[in-house]
């Protein structure tokens, strides 16, 4: 049986507490998973405000899907089809996904939807800039935006391949950090206990295998080194 991670979205905190709309999404995903032969190992619920573009629960769901090699099951893609932030996050994640309400959707479909949503957002931005320019012309004082921080360039030359591998390992460790910390808070602190918990959660090692005490020790050393660097 294939592994899956489910992602649900509700519009308000009240809907999240009451289950309004959520139960229907969960039932749809569970029936879909049963028909397609998926085992849903974790469910994420996003309480989404119309004023926010960040999707923290979506990021967690994508991270879990990447760590476990699971497919992301999305209950309702149609209601999110105009949200550029959601679509671009999904498109760029590289995670396999299926939408229950649009099972024929693919990364190409999402890419097209993202372009349309981006075009709409740019049109809104142009109208906003025009309104600000008109306000400025009428004598209103407008603030100046902060300059963007410069991006650090990747190391080149000798050792570039080693550096790339190290960065990849660091990124993987960072993705695992919240999971490991959650286990430790729950009282699982031994290397063997952490290895068992990660294996039970279907989380894979960086090489795609099962966790052992030594591999957990390597992960913890890397996390400590990153922490010492302030990362």
Describe the structure.
- A four-stranded parallel β-sheet has the order 2-1-3-4, sandwiched between helices.
- It is 55% helix and 11% strand.
- The protein has two domains: 2-113, 3-Layer(aba) Sandwich (Rossmann fold), CATH 3.40.50.1390; 167-228.
- The protein is α/β, with parallel strands linked by helices and 231 residues long.
- The radius of gyration is 22 Å and the shape is globular.
- The chain has helices spanning 13-18, 22-36, 56-68, 84-93, 107-137, 160-185, 191-200, 213-228, and strands spanning 2-10, 38-47, 71-74, 97-99.
Q: How much helicity do the residues have?
A: 40-55%
Radius of gyration: 22 Å
CATH architecture of the largest domain: 3-Layer(aba) Sandwich
Distance between the termini: 37 Å
**Structural class, from secondary structure content?**
alpha/beta
Strand order of the largest sheet: 2-1-3-4
**What name is given to the CATH topology of the largest domain?**
Rossmann fold
CATH class wording of the largest domain? Alpha Beta
From N to C, what is the helix and strand string? EHHEHEHEHHHH
Alpha plus pi helix count: 8
């Amino acid at each position: 049986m294939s592994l899956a991670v489910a992602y649900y979205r509700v519009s308000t905190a009240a809907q999240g507490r009451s289950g309004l709309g959520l139960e229907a999404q969960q039932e749809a995903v569970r029936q879909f998973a049963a028909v397609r032969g998926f085992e849903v190992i974790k469910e994420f619920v996003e309480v989404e405000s119309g004023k926010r573009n960040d999707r923290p629960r979506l990021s967690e769901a994508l991270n879990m899907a990447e760590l476990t090699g699971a497919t992301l099951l999305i209950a309702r893609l149609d209601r999110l089809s105009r949200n550029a932030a959601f679509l671009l996050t999904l498109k760029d994640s590289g995670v396999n996904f299926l939408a229950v309400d649009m099972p024929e959707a693919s990364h190409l479909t999402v890419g097209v939807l993202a372009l349309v949503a981006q075009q709409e957002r740019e049109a809104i931005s142009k109208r906003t800039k025009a309104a600000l320019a008109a306000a400025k012309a009428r004598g209103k004082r407008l603030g100046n935006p902060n300059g963007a921080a410069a991006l650090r360039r990747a190391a080149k030359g000798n050792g570039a391949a080693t550096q790339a591998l190290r960065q990849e390992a660091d990124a993987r460790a960072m993705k695992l950090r919240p999971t490991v910390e959650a286990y430790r808070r729950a009282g699982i602190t031994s290397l063997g206990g952490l290895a068992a918990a990660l294996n039970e959660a279907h989380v894979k090692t960086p090489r795609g295998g099962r966790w052992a005490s030594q591999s957990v020790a390597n992960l913890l050393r890397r996390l400590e080194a990153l922490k010492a660097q302030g990362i």
